């Protein structure tokens, strides 16, 4: 019985050490005081950093209805913005070797989601 209890305890401890937690480092960047504009600030980031490689595999951002695709595709979580599928995807870096989004671009996207992800 004692061996079984030790095995279970060991398994539980091992389970906790195997978990990977992703923490977002608070990076000081200067953001505008006014609301972030989807068409003026967010779409240009996607066009500059994402669309070139992902237009055929992820047509979400290349259509004229990019905003609708993001909202209706459950890519945005305005309740917990850091857990938005969109933010998690762009915050993962870019394993393919292309240029990842910089801290200011990531902060703009997060601010836009936090502000309610408006189509402005």
Verbal overview:
The protein has one domain (2-114). Helices cover 49% and strands 0% of the residues. It has 6 helices and no strands. The model is unreliable at 19-24 (pLDDT under 50).
Summed up:
With 120 residues, this protein is mainly alpha-helical.
Secondary structure class reads mainly alpha
Q: What share of the residues lie within helices?
A: 40-55%
State the domain count.
1
Radius of gyration, taken over Cα atoms and rounded to an integer in Å: 19 Å
Mean of the pLDDT scores? 78
Largest sheet, strands/sense/barrel: none
Q: What's the number of helices?
A: 6
Runs with pLDDT <50, length 5+?
19-24
Strand content: under 5%
Q: Would you list the SSEs in sequence order as H and E?
A: HHHHHH
Q: What general form does the structure show?
A: elongated
Distance linking N and C termini? 64 Å
Q: What is the β-strand count?
A: 0
Entry keywords:
single chain; 120 residues; mainly alpha; 6 helices; elongated
Topology of helices and strands:
Layout: H1 2-18, H2 38-49, H3 51-54, H4 66-72, H5 85-91, H6 103-114
Helix pairs in contact: 2-6
């Amino acid at each position: 019985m004692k061996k079984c209890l030790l095995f279970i305890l060991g398994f539980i401890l091992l389970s906790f050490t195997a978990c990977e937690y992703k923490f977002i480092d608070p990076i000081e960047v200067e953001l505008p005081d006014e609301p972030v504009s989807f068409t003026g600030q967010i779409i240009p980031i996607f066009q500059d950093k994402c669309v070139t490689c992902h237009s055929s595999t992820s047509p979400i951002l290349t259509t004229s209805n990019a905003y609708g695709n993001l909202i209706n595709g459950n890519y945005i979580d305005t309740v917990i913005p850091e857990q938005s599928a969109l933010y998690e995807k762009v915050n993962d870096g870019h394993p393919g070797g292309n240029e990842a989004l910089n801290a200011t671009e990531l902060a703009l996207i997060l601010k836009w989601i936090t502000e309610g992800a408006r189509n402005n």
